[in-house]
Amino acid sequence: xxxxxxxxxxxxxxxxxxxxxxxxxxxxxxxxxxxxxxxxxxxxxxxxxxxxxxxxxxxxxxxxxxxxxxxxxxxxxxxxxxxxxxxxxxxxxxxxxxxxxxxxxxxxxxxxxxxxxxxxxxxxxxxxxxxxxxxxxxxxxxxxxxxxxxxxxxxxxxxxxxxxxxxxxx
Length: 170
Prior knowledge:
Blueprint: H1 2-16, H2 25-35, H3 41-52, H4 61-96, H5 103-131, H6 135-150, H7 155-169
Helix pairs in contact: 1-2, 1-4, 2-5, 3-4, 3-5, 6-7
């Protein structure tokens, strides 16, 4: 039970400042991989792939992380941690009322988004080091990034293609 509460608290902390869904990665990686060793980089990457290839919000990968840590009870705690910030925002909007258009409040939100983006980049470096272990994986990653940035191919098809290539090569 204590592990589930720690999991909830960790995932709640990670989602509170995550306005784009993926800004929670650094906190999750640090707490669950580096500090507690409850999951590894491959499991976090798998959770991200599952979350990105399913419909719904980008942060839904957190439920997969919870599952990898503690099975179905972990997935439930992760879903609760994912929902809590949204419920808190609704309450905050209700309390702020018409002051929500205040430039200071808008600037505070922008600051959190920009800071979270830089924080996310730092976590992705560590995940990339554990994922790109051979030359062909580096090439596959570069090709996938190029397709994502330069074409209009849907992300799901790039993920499926990269998955098929990686299975065929191994």
